[in-house]
Amino acid sequence: MKDDIKVQIEYCGACDYGGHCLALANAIKKSTTNASVICKKGRKGSFEILLNDKLIYSKLQTMALPDYEEVVNVVLDVSNGGEPRVIKGQQPINCAIS
What strand order describes the sheet that includes 5-11? Predict the structure, then answer.
């Protein structure tokens, strides 16, 4: 296992994404014990994930939250010596217009 896996999640406080950040942080810490996860309030609409200072997911670009399982797997891969890779999976957008 590599030492010091650093995950930073910038989330939109106005959008109430703090709970999403904590849920993802807990999932990462459960699978990768040497990962430190920092959740910080940021730009409106954001849910940006940096892994060892490399952007691996941007809600500002995709307009959707990431697939948490894929994020956890990428962090675990990096912990085992892999390179950070961009997250492709997204959570379904459940937006209804009436």
Answer: 35-41, 5-11, 47-51, 54-58
